[in-house]
Amino acid sequence: MTRHVQKDPYYAVIFTSKLADNTDGYAEISKKMNELVKNQKGFIGVESIREGKNGVTISYWETMEDIRNWSMNERHAEAKQGGKEKWYEKFSVKICKVEREYAFGE
Amino acid sequence: MTRHVQKDPYYAVIFTSKLADNTDGYAEISKKMNELVKNQKGFIGVESIREGKNGVTISYWETMEDIRNWSMNERHAEAKQGGKEKWYEKFSVKICKVEREYAFGE
């Protein structure tokens, strides 16, 4: 997800996680959230990579308010609760303003 | 890499990449860069994940100037040249200011 002509600033949410041993139900909820997020106001794109138990998902947003709205979305909140109770051993979230970017070969 | 008590703003460099078919020499240079970066002024930490050909590496820095210095480091510049000529089919770099963060289970 790279935008070459950058008119407005935008934001990135870096979500790094380590799965717990019991991931029953995780794949299903994860898929649902990936579908749901695409319809949110201000959503630009998402990149997600997993290597064993460790994952990084970076979502891109037009404004901080769009990020807040998504964080308060009811179904998203339910999924996050499941994440804390069951699926994740640990995770961290960093909300960032993209200051500059460049790309090669895209 | 999560800092719970955040006194000063800091910066993240999101590097997403797709490897080309020929990765001869890549592992060696990649290892060298991982060692070299740890001694750079202002370096805070790095997270790196690969899934097949796709990779995400996020490095954290104290200031934008530290990021600039590392980007101009001579050995780093050589490695980047190799990346463009041989190892990467494509990549993107996003330089971000971390505005807010939280963590669970860390």
Keywords:
homodimer, 106 residues, alpha+beta, Alpha-Beta Plaits, 4-stranded antiparallel beta sheet, 3 helices, 4 strands, globular
Show the helix and strand layout.
The structure is a homodimer of 106-residue chains.
Chain A: E1 10-19, H1 26-37, E2 43-51, E3 54-61, H2 64-72, H3 74-87, E4 88-104
Antiparallel strand pairs in A: 1-3, 1-4, 2-3
Provide the structure class of chain A. alpha+beta
- Helix count of chain A? 3
Unreliable runs of chain A: none
Number of structural units classed as domains of chain A: 1
Give the helix proportion of chain A (percent range): 25-40%
Which architecture of chain A does the CATH hierarchy give at level 2?
A: 2-Layer Sandwich
CATH topology of chain A: Alpha-Beta Plaits
Q: Note the beta-strand portion of chain A.
A: 35-45%
- Provide the spatial order of strands within the biggest beta sheet of chain A: 2-3-1-4
* Biggest interface, chains and residue tallies: A-B, 35 and 35 residues
Count of DSSP E strands of chain A? Answer: 4
Instruction: Give the ordered list of helices and strands of chain A.
Output: EHEEHHE
Summarize the biggest pleated sheet of chain A: 4 strands, antiparallel
User: Quick check: average pLDDT of chain A?
Assistant: 91
Query: What is the distance, rounded to the nearest whole angstrom, between the alpha carbons of the first and last residues of chain A?
Result: 10 Å
Q: How would you describe the oligomerization state of the chains in this entry?
A: homodimer
Shape of chain A: globular
The CATH class name of chain A reads: Alpha Beta
Radius of gyration from the alpha-carbon trace of chain A, in angstroms: 14 Å
